[in-house]
Specification:
Elements: E1 3-5, E2 23-29, H1 40-57, E3 60-64, H2 78-94, E4 104-109, E5 113-115, H3 122-129, E6 137-141, E7 146-154, H4 157-168, H5 177-180, H6 185-195, H7 197-201, E8 203-206, E9 232-234, E10 245-246, E11 249-250, H8 256-267
Parallel strand pairs: 2-3, 2-4, 6-8
Antiparallel strand pairs: 1-3, 4-7, 5-9, 6-7, 10-11
């Protein structure tokens, strides 16, 4: 696996204002099979929002760039490898170097997850939904299933064990894709959550709009559609479409002005709480 750190690659301490807060890393997957070339701008811009967000809040940002696999191993399964790598790195190297000692979390965000409201911090999400030491996974769902495009994993031995179990289900016939809505890692995660009381005990299912609002193309009776002010917008299931809409606005709206504004915000040392939503730019 090729693993790149794009933000603060050697950081072992967090900013003074966050010395008592958990450590956070943001991880995503960046692969470019031929069929995805027509959508490369969407994925590139999604990653740009990750970079800006990570830099704004002092998080490390990791991108897994493993070569596109064959049909026997869809790319979504590499998400599990990337997350395990990040958890191991945090447990073995980052957390032991921190004073005072504290825990850490990995936020997995698919490359088609756009950060829209830069003022929302991962610390605040974890404080509300992950304060129970028993909680190891924070994930959202709609009325059908959980969605693995945006997940918070606590850096722990339990998480490593869980991810190992997910990986072991690759190619397995133990779970029915029709019942668990995916033949990929999302189906395996859903299967383990539905069938294992221990996984249920360690998982907090939260409202979708907290950190996994869908783009409007996902309109269905149970879709969690993005509203202005939400943390992210997720273009889940948009592959193969020629248009992407956000509440009627075509996806092609440029983000350059937004990035320039956030860059100037960081350079002027304005409070992070003043960070805007891209809806307001």
């Amino acid at each position: 696996m090729t693993f790149q750190k794009l933000i603060s690659p050697n950081r072992t301490v967090v900013p003074t204002s966050r010395r008592d807060a958990p450590l956070f890393d943001l991880v995503t997957l960046a692969q470019r099979p031929p069929a995805y070339q027509m959508k490369r701008n969407m994925y590139a811009e999604g990653a740009q929002t990750h970079i800006v967000y990570a830099e704004l809040h002092g998080y490390d940002y990791h991108v897994s760039t493993k070569v596109w696999p064959g049909p026997d191993r869809p790319s979504a399964w590499h998400k599990v490898d990337a997350i395990r790598h990040a958890v191991l790195e945090m447990l073995m190297y980052k957390l032991p170097a921190l004073e005072p000692k504290r825990g850490g979390w990995i936020w997995w965000a698919d490359s088609d997850v756009f950060v829209k409201n830069m003022s929302i911090r991962l610390e605040d999400i974890v404080a509300e939904y992950g304060s129970n030491p028993q909680t190891q996974i924070i994930i959202a769902r709609d009325c059908l299933t959980i969605n693995s495009g945006s997940i918070l994993y606590r850096a722990s031995e339990w998480t490593l064990s869980f991810l190992g179990r997910v990986a072991s289900l690759r190619g397995s016939n133990l779970f029915d894709p029709a019942k668990y809505y995916s033949t990929w890692e999302q189906g395996a995660i859903n299967y383990l959550h539905e069938t294992d009381p221990d996984v249920q005990k360690h998982t907090n299912i939260i409202p979708g709009r907290v950190f996994n609002s869908y783009a409007a193309h996902r309109v269905s009776p149970c879709s969690v559609i993005y509203q202005p002010g939400d943390f992210v917008i997720h273009y889940s299931g948009a592959f193969g479409r020629t248009e992407y809409h956000t509440n009627g606005t075509v996806y092609k709206k440029p983000y350059a002005k937004f990035f320039r504004f956030v860059s100037s915000l960081m350079q002027s040392n304005v409070s992070r709480e003043a960070a805007p939503s891209s809806d307001s730019i």
